[in-house]
Prior knowledge:
5-stranded antiparallel sheet; mainly beta; 17 strands; 27% strand; globular; disordered N terminus; 2 helices; Jelly Rolls
Amino acid sequence: MRKVLVVAVGIALLGLVTGCATEEATKTKPAKVKPATAAPAKTEAAKTEPVEPKPVIQYVDTPSGRWMIHDESRPAPPVITPGTFSSTRRVGQAPSDAIVLFDGAAESMKNWTDTKGGASKWIVNEGYMESVKGAGPIQTKNGFGSCQLHVEFATPANVQGTSQGRGNSGVFLQGEYEVQVLDSFENKTYPDGQCSALYGRSVPLVNACRKPGEWQSYDIVYHSAIFKDGKITRKPTFTIFQNGVLVQDHVTLEGGTQWNGPHAISAFRPIPDKGPVQLQDHGNPVRYRNIWVRPLQD
C-alpha cells in the first residue's frame, strides 16, 4: 500500500513540474501570429522591375494656336505646284567657287564616310547615291560652318508606308540640325516633320513637293550655331528653297532637332564650330545627287 502511495505522489510531483515548465515557456516564448493585414513579401522580380518613364510632352505657340510637338492636328501648310525641270532650264549647277561634294561619280565618294570615319555602305548607281537600310548615316569628311548648300534628292517611286514611314531621310547641317526629307506628296503627317521642315521646330511655309520618284532640290542658306564654354552664344538660322520655292524664311532655331519622344524635342547641345554635312539613313532607299557647298563668311 505504501509503495502505491509513493508512486502516486511521484506522478503528481512530475505533473506539477511539467506544468510549471510549460507555463514558463508560454511566458518567455509567445507564439508568433501573422497579422491579417500584413502585406505580402516582395519578390526579387518586383524589386528589379523597371519603372516606365512618363512621356515628355512639349508645346509650341504659333499664330494658329498652341500645339504639341509632332501634332498631326496642327494645320498643314498649303500645297503648291513647283516649277518643272526641263532640258533648257536646269537649276542647281555648281558655281565656280563651290566645293563639289558629290557629282554622281563613284570617285566622289572619297568625300564621304560613315559616322565612324570608315567607308560607307551607301551605293552609287547611275549618277546618284542611295541609302542602304542599316548602313547608318553618311557624312562629309570635312566640316562646315555657315554655308550655302545645294542638295538634290528623290524619294522612292514605289510608294510604301505612310506618314513618317514613307521616303524618310534628312539633311543635317553641322552634323546636328535636320532639314527633313520625306515623301510629303499626298501623305499626311505631323507638319513639323514633313518635307522641308526643320524637324520638330519649324513648319514649312508651303508644301512644294514633287511626286514620288521625281528629283527635287534644296537650296539652303545656313548660319551656324556658335558655342562658348558649353553655352550657345549664337543660334543657327535657316533660309531654304525647295524646288525653287521659299519654304523657310530666315528661321532661327530655338533648340535641337533630335527626336525625343512622340511629343517632345531636344535642347541645344554643344558642338564644334564646324561639322559635317550628313545624310540620314532612316530605312527608306532615298537617292541623292549634285551636292555642293559654298562656305560663307559671317
